[in-house]
Every structure is written in C-alpha cells, then in structure tokens.
Amino acid sequence: MEPSSDNPVAGLEAVFAEMRPALVRRAAAMGAAGDAEDVVQDVWLKIRNAEGPIANPQAYLLRMVYTAVLDRRRGSRRSAARDAAWSSPANLPEDSVEAANAERRLIAAQTLAEVEARLAAIGDPAAALFRRHRIDGVTQRRLAEEFGMGLSTVEKHLRRVYAAILDLGGDQA
After folding, report:
1. Is the pLDDT higher at 150 or at 11?
2. Pairwise CA distance, residues 38 & 44, whole Å
3. Do 46 and 13 contact (CB within 8 A), yes or no?
4. Fewer CB within 10 Å of terminal CB in the chain, N or C?
C-alpha cells in the first residue's frame, strides 16, 4: 500500500513494516529478548489507532518500542512485588494474624502450665535448682555451693527435670 498524504496511518504502517526487524532488534537489545516480538506487536496495535501526521516516523516508532519495553518492565516489577506482598505473612488479614497470635499465646500458656505441673510433681530441690539454673542463669557449680550438695547431685536433679519436661513433647503427639 502506498502511503498517501490523506492517510497518515497508512504511511506509518508502511514505515513500520519496513522497520519491523530493526524494531524487534531494538526491543531485544533493551532486555525484552523473549518478548521482543510481543513488544513490537503491541506497538503495531497502537499505531493502528494513531492519528495525525507524524514528522519523523522512524524516531516515533523507536520511541514507541522504548516506551513499550519500559511499560512491560514496570508491569513485571509491579507483578512481582504484588505476588511477594500477597504471599507475605505480614500482609495477612488483621483478624487472621490476631487469631494466630492468640493461638500461640494459648499454646504457650498451656505448655507453661504443664511444665509448672511437672515441676510441682518433681518437687524441691530439683524444681528450685532448675528455676535457678535455667531462669536465673546460675551455674551448676554455684548451685551446688548454694544448696550445699555436690556438683553430680545438682546434675542428677537437673537431668530428672529435663527428662520430665522432654516427656511433655511425647504426651502431645
């Protein structure tokens, strides 16, 4: 089809057809290698709706390819960010986060009650030694001095408490 002064779109389409391989190379060089043909097809669809005369059709088409590649890049970044946000637990609905936190608190409270019950069942001095060692951070040697017993006796009491607490994990299964 011959470009005419009556139909500027026909003239632009003719320039597009002539420049098509160069436009595909331009899109690929800009990083749209796998999508270069799609980018050029998008440009083709847009120029079909172009209106008015275009002073420099080659520059216009190159600029359209440039813009189309940037639009695709921005779109893929937005899509990746949206997908990451959707899959992030921080972006769960507020009520589901609160429900999960409430459930964790309930489980922690139940576990603490079970540990306290085991410690009460074991009794002193083992429970007191465990609390001073694990909660207060007192060394076993220092506990032996405070409680007036040998280091091996402190270790024996702590082993008993640890066994009782580890047994809690077996009760929950």
Report:
1. 150
2. 10
3. no
4. C
Specify the length of the chain in residues. Answer: 173
Average pLDDT over residues 115-127: 87
Sign of the CA dihedral with 140 first, then 142, 143, and 145 last = positive
Domain boundaries, the chain: 8-87, 92-172
Average pLDDT estimate for 58-74? 90
Taking alpha carbons only, the member of 19, 6, 1 closest to residue 53 is 6
pLDDT in tens, 29-59: 988 778 888 888 988 988 887 777 788 889 9
Assess contact for 161 and 122: CB atoms under 8 A.
Answer: yes
Distance of CA 89 to the CA centre of its chain: 8
For residue range 77-92, what is the model confidence (pLDDT) as tens digits?
898 888 877 766 665 5
Query: What is residue 49's DSSP assignment?
Result: T
DSSP-assigned letters across all residues of 22-45: HHHHHHIIIIIGGGHHHHHHHHHH
